[in-house]
């Protein structure tokens, strides 16, 4: 169906109709004059304002993505490379997810706080592995006005080192535990590799949770509880299927004990993408920052810590998964605009009559599959609600079918290399040795980027005893997903 | 009434009871043994943990304020001067105000967005008066990792120059207007004058609204609509009385046309404080950033712009106004914890009996005036709700009485100087000349800081025709509030 709104208002983004999950037309929707008029105008509009998409998703995915987020008015490119303007459509999606997640963590008795944007160098460098992971990306403030600062000050790339000196101060006895804080904030990672809106940007918005417990059991349990919330953000809100699992030693969070994640996959680019991470930090930071407490037996003990985060990257994943050649497709649960009601005027028509009719006859066109249906006015609200639920579910089902169709099981190097060449999401038996992963990276280096482990899924297929690692030929310890990634 | 919670848990901040507006005790509240025991323990606790306040509000206001915000666990001092950690109690107050304000501006069809933290120098410097106002406080990023950036990048002190190049891009015709955006974010002003938690910090949280209209009439109307929301934040939520008015030419926003504000006053320090500002920017930024549009007659025109903001400073004003020698006093509307129910145990008591009684007998103690009342269990909920409304109103009334008692009308320099010496909020007839304000500043310079104009209240007392300016002796044009300020 041609969109009359585009024709009526040339300044509307062509992508705007993506924002509505259901377009309900009242009046003579099939009138040929009207259609012809609209078509003609729309072409004119596209030519004049360049708001249509000039490439197809399957032809040039990168260019398509960039056009969708810009023409759909989610993103505006900014005059500093790697920084992007998040426009109102983006913020409304972010706010829906934020409302859900914030309420859920409040139920878990996690409280919001706000720590400073700035970190002093001494504190930043206290945990060696951690700073090695982040140092190359840290932005430094060295001047204010015309004066040089005595000591350069870093901008947080993440807040472990910002927060934990104060955890050390606040935690004295077991009654101070657990300490469970979260903040919604911006962070800065001055990366030089390909910036991509939402997916890889120098500044982004996120929440970061930082918790401390008396026992590892409690920390372990929370890691999974948070990971489940991340799954729900992706699957229930963004309708994007994800795999829950554990990262390899090489891919885990710098300075942490182990990292769990939800991993998504983009069929068009053949790349995995880390959707959100929930880390158990163990006692490593506790040791470096001296976060000790007197336990209930009066003995000195060290806390167990977690940190976990999801960012505006979620929105990019959603666009990549659901968007089509007409632009954005948004799941109803995060769409600011769920329904557009369009009175369809045509030449010589009685406009008032049409407007009146809008309240009695309704033709609905779904944004996801463009199916049309005439809905009687009786029970309209109920029917539309059902349609919304159906669109949400069917977006997820379709995305899952496409994702699953990309999964290939590779049992040896030959199968692995072939599947990688076909941009697949590869499930392979692995010996779980760090040197072997490094070797896989080295052997797959190239223009497209090396392959790496994405995660070892919690949901493990059977692994017969004599199964060998696809890469080393040693006995396999687990099934692991591999592929190129963002 | 002594607080048993402090005695039961030595790690609770002494200020904690400030967080509850009403303490409801069940059991034998007046039992003398219990009181004695509790008193003894509380003293011990204070000595041990240093959580009590060591100074009185009237004796050393600055020290008192610092102790209240730290011991009340709203703020933790940070290892970078002028930066503070906002702890959960603070964030819960901020979130209450945010929920109110965000919903109100959404009703006005203002949409949220997020622009980058960073500004390139060329853009930052485009509006001359504006950058002159902010340049000395701008923090500059010059390095990432170990590499120098090609061009230093500024951190936003406010976002006019960040946003308006894109307003220029997005606004073409009158149908694109009004453009009304808001963002919730952090900003950085690297000030060197006395940092004070909430009141003057190098990084703070705020909302900043930026709107563009086709006509001045629309812009003028919005300035006042937003200012009214700021008044409500202060008066209805924080129970702090404010004066609405217009800033002088000397005190208006750098680069703007005129600035309106809500002004609060802190009786203890004798200083006014700018509570929030709503600026009409006129067409000055539109000219510098070329924000033009084709009006409905097809003629080229320039937009009229506003910007407006309130920050976490609001919370500091509230603490200063309501706090007492026992610590924080929070208006019920922003208190995370409104009621604490305390079973009061005593020696040889049947603990279970007391707990049972808590559900039947209730003695209430208000945090604001410590008034005690026994409330029957019948209608308890209703009665408590009434009490909360009464506390909210009476905090405002008390604050207003105290503020009003500080107002002095000064008709000549002698009266003005005397009132200033007494740390009053001075209402004086003024000729409204910039040179005269500069002269007042010069003549009142000293250890305490110079006096300046705070605002010309919209609510103007009668000004007889022959009234002369208190400072210049020229004919007075208006009544203006003067004083020292934060």
UniProtKB/TrEMBL annotation, chains A, B:
InterPro entries reported in the protein's UniProt record: aa-tRNA-synt_IIb, aa-tRNA-synth_II, aa-tRNA-synth_II/BPL/LPL, Pro-tRNA-ligase_IIa, Pro-tRNA-ligase_IIa_arc-type, Pro-tRNA_ligase_II_C, Pro-tRNA_synth_II, ProRS_core_arch_euk
Catalytic activity entry: tRNA(Pro) + L-proline + ATP = L-prolyl-tRNA(Pro) + AMP + diphosphate
Keyword Plastid: no
EC numbers for this chain: 6.1.1.15
Molecular functions per Gene Ontology: ATP binding; proline-tRNA ligase activity
Keywords noted in UniProt: Aminoacyl-tRNA synthetase, ATP-binding, Ligase, Nucleotide-binding, Protein biosynthesis
Highest taxon of source: Eukaryota
SMART domains in UniProt: ProRS-C_1
Domain Aminoacyl-transfer RNA synthetases class-II family profile span(s) in chain numbering: 93-331
GO BP terms: prolyl-tRNA aminoacylation
Keyword Nucleus attributed: no
A Pfam family the protein falls into: tRNA-synt_2b
GO cellular component labels: aminoacyl-tRNA synthetase multienzyme complex; cytoplasm
Protein name: proline--tRNA ligase
Biological source species: Escallonia herrerae
């Amino acid at each position: 169906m041609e969109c009359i709104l585009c024709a009526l208002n040339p300044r509307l983004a062509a992508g705007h109709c993506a924002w509505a999950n259901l377009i309900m037309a009242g009046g003579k929707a099939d009138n040929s004059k009207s259609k012809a008029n609209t078509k003609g105008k729309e072409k004119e509009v596209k030519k004049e304002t360049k708001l249509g998409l000039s490439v197809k998703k399957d032809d040039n995915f990168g260019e398509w993505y960039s056009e969708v987020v810009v023409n759909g008015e989610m993103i505006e490119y900014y005059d500093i490379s790697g920084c992007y303007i998040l426009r109102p459509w983006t913020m409304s999606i972010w706010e829906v997810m934020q409302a859900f997640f914030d309420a859920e963590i409040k139920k878990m008795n996690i409280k919001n706080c706000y720590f400073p944007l700035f970190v002093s160098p001494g504190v930043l460098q206290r945990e060696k592995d951690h700073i090695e992971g982040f140092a190359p990306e840290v932005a430094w403030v060295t001047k204010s006005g015309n004066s040089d600062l005595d000591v350069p000050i870093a901008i947080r790339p993440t807040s472990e080192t910002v927060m934990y000196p104060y955890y050390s101060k606040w935690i004295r006895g077991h009654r101070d535990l657990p300490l469970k804080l979260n903040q919604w904030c911006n962070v800065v990672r001055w990366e030089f590799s390909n910036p991509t809106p939402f997916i890889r940007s120098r500044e982004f918005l996120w929440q970061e949770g930082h918790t401390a417990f008396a026992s590892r059991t409690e920390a372990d349990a929370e890691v999974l509880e948070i990971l489940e919330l991340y799954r729900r953000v992706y699957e229930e809100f963004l309708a994007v299927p994800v795999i829950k699992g554990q990262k390899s030693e090489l891919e885990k969070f710098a300075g942490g004990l182990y990292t769990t994640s939800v991993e998504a996959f983009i069929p068009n680019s053949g790349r995995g993408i880390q959707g959100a991470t929930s880390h158990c930090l163990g006692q490593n930071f506790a040791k470096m920052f001296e976060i000790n407490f007197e336990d209930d037996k009066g003995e000195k003990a060290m806390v167990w810590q977690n940190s976990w985060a999801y960012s505006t990257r979620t929105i990019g994943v959603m666009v990549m998964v659901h968007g089509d050649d007409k632009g954005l497709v948004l799941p109803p649960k995060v769409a600011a605009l769920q329904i557009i009601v369009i009175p369809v005027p045509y030449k010589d028509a009685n406009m008032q009559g049409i407007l009146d009719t809008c309240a009695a006859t309704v033709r609905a066109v779904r944004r996801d599959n463009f199916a049309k249906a005439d809905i009687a006015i009786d029970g309209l609200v109920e029917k539309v609600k059902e349609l919304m639920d159906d669109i949400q579910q069917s977006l997820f089902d379709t995305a899952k079918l496409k994702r699953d169709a990309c999964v290939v099981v590779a049992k040896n190097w030959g199968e692995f290399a072939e599947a990688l060449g076909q941009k697949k999401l590869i499930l392979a038996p692995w010996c779980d040795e760090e040197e072997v992963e490094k070797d896989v990276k080295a052997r797959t280096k190239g223009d497209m980027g090396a392959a790496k482990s994405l995660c070892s899924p919690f949901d493990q297929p059977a692994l017969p005893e004599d199964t060998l690692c696809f890469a080393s030929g040693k006995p396999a310890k687990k099934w692991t997903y591999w592929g190129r990634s963002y």
